[in-house]
Amino acid sequence: MTMYTPHVARENGPLYKALADSIERDIQAGTLTPGERLPTHRDMADALGVNVSTVTRGYREAEKRGLLSGTVGRGTFVASDAVTSSAMVSFEPGAPGMIEMGLIAPLSYLDPDVAEGFRRIARRKDPTTFLRYTDPRGLPDHRQAGALWARLYGLECGPEEIIVCAGAQHALTCCLAGLLRPGDRLAVDSLTYPGLKSLASMLGIRLAPITMDGQGMMPEALDAACRRNDIKAVYLMPGVHNPTTATMSEPRRDEIARLAEVHDLIIIEDDAYDLTHPGRTTPVSDRARHRAVFVAGLSKSLAAGLRVAFLVAPPALRKPLAQAVLNTIWMAPPLNVELAAMWITDGTAEQILEAKRAEAARRYMIACDVLDGLRFRGKPTGFFCWLELPAPWTGAAFEAAARARGINVFGAEKFVVGDTAAPAAARLSLTGAEDIDDYRQGLWVLWHLLTRKD
Amino acid sequence: MTMYTPHVARENGPLYKALADSIERDIQAGTLTPGERLPTHRDMADALGVNVSTVTRGYREAEKRGLLSGTVGRGTFVASDAVTSSAMVSFEPGAPGMIEMGLIAPLSYLDPDVAEGFRRIARRKDPTTFLRYTDPRGLPDHRQAGALWARLYGLECGPEEIIVCAGAQHALTCCLAGLLRPGDRLAVDSLTYPGLKSLASMLGIRLAPITMDGQGMMPEALDAACRRNDIKAVYLMPGVHNPTTATMSEPRRDEIARLAEVHDLIIIEDDAYDLTHPGRTTPVSDRARHRAVFVAGLSKSLAAGLRVAFLVAPPALRKPLAQAVLNTIWMAPPLNVELAAMWITDGTAEQILEAKRAEAARRYMIACDVLDGLRFRGKPTGFFCWLELPAPWTGAAFEAAARARGINVFGAEKFVVGDTAAPAAARLSLTGAEDIDDYRQGLWVLWHLLTRKD
């Protein structure tokens, strides 16, 4: 086997950056593949005719970019998720002929009547308010509606605690850019939301993957990671973990909150799918309010295109978060927030939520029926499930085989962080296909794929 | 004079960070003031009982955060703009009783009729489209409208070149976060848009201030800065520079474009006020299309609250920019963009623009009349002007004195970058006060303040 040698001569700028750049390019090009071991610092230095310290710096730079992961005594490896962040999102959901079981569409055909919403706003006394610059935290009425919405998630709060954002992804942007600095470490589940991975990578925030069990993040593992490294914050989805659908018990939530206290962590809790199932356990944030930022989104439960989410933030974090809203978008567009606030206040939002849960329940029943004999986890009203794959399948192989049969699914590799080994599993969206016959057809094809006896 | 000694013992984490943290806190608290010289590395090390290298690292960290600026042979100083970024934005424009001549409000009482806009969208066949996830680059019709809008700025382009953003500030976020990395250097005018300073500071992007003359950024100074340091991109406002209202000549634009080529710079051109005056000179971007990202905003000329702007981007930069849209907000809310696209396509937008120019011209005439005898620069249809202050005024002193008389203005200090010395000047918004009598009254008070013979 020939040793990997990057072509650094073509690059500009300092050598260590050129080395990181060419590693990045080779990963993008597929010359270097996830899990591959890189030459030792000394071998690489000899091959390139440079100092060992330059290679060390270059590898460290590549590690910062999420490309490599090193384990003391084992060597340096291409990170398992090095290629997935850029490839993770299809810009064109619903590619012609494909049945979408990868992206989780929030059953948007059940969304509220937007034409009716417009007509109501048009009748207002002074709708021009919505075309002006406003407080980046949001208009008073909108923050009031945000407090009502947060209550559905089990958080009692007042409007002064609310900061209006342009959707949950934007809320995460404000948390990561406003509360952390480039180079800071954020603890996450070892399988986590790809949109967070991609955002953190862009902002230079380092992710520390924490081992999970059937309840999600393991407190002992979080504790150990905090002792090993300086960790600033922890990202949590305790209600419905994406992608595994795990739910944290009350004692586990208490313990995570206690550890956040012990290690002085900011809690970022973004339980996007928590409202999709009925029955609330209070959020981890409620157990450590002064250090927790809670993302109360509504894309999954009310309407994704509005791009509205509410942050519930403690006094000490409100100023940097409001500044981050200002820095990134000045303010969430008040028009959209007005629509959301109207629907939240008049009860439309809860009706829509109920309708979506009922439709999700119907789809989940179909999945249970069709996928008989396969192992999967999900909520009875869930928008997705986590499918364990029989040997010798890997998530990536299953994803490729499904795609060849006209079905889009997401292998576990899209969710793994750093050098976590990807389990043989895939996330199955139950709501991606609008048409119920397509949906059923997709499930059947996947069932055949996994159960055929060749 | 006693030597400045920070209290670093209270901090957690590595010592160098603790040092930077306490410098930051002392600047916020006013214990350290802009321009103040810090102890030498050795003196500080002795005072704290730590290694010189720890102090060097701490100072460097503080410099990265935009707090300090060092000049070889002269020492280390608190940056002129160290305190302004967090204080720069009033969250509550129009504080009771204050006449607003600081913030530039885009004459929003001339904005289009939003109620009528809503009614038209409500009559569409399928307005629910606007509640769904879409391509982060924007819907096809919206990108088409973006191309029309960019044409008003003097850029001929097709819809495939357009990426829809949630306002110009968001477009800048996508440029800085998507095209640069933390630690990268961005060349800017030595006086620049505060929203860019604040964003760059949050993202860990370092600003390299470039000396200006009456035409804006000086090519020789840009060239020298690129030779001295590795600079990745340059931020430009060639039509109406904020805050000085300077305009770049054609030859100067050619020369800056040529230098961008020589030094392999990405051009980020965000000429927010360029449409407020009639008569176009083609953008610098048009002279180097393959390396230029042009921000075609509409907050100043059409409606700020919509939060819509269009990026015109070359092929090589479109993917990272679209990914940055996705990472930060998933997509600009299609509803708002639909309103903007409708107004752009049916000609409403150009009518509004004309009406705003006419009102700005009227206000500018009033300013010329009232401020007789004072030196100021502005466009005949401009939304703001740049007022030179007679000795011994400084911008900050004038800002404070004006505020004491119930008028909000912005001293030059809000715009300076790094260790640039702030000129004795202030930016005067001509559109902040809605009421024309308030506006005239504000101008009179400022005139008296600057011309009184005590």
UniProtKB/TrEMBL annotation, chains A, B:
Positions of transmembrane segments: none
Keyword set, alphabetical order: Aminotransferase, DNA-binding, Pyridoxal phosphate, Transcription, Transcription regulation, Transferase
Domain named HTH gntR-type: residues: 13-81
Entry GO MF terms: DNA binding; DNA-binding transcription factor activity; pyridoxal phosphate binding; transaminase activity
Keyword Transcription: yes
Family, similarity comment: In the C-terminal section; belongs to the class-I pyridoxal-phosphate-dependent aminotransferase family.
Protein name: Aminotransferase class I/II-fold pyridoxal phosphate-dependent enzyme
Organism: Pseudodesulfovibrio cashew
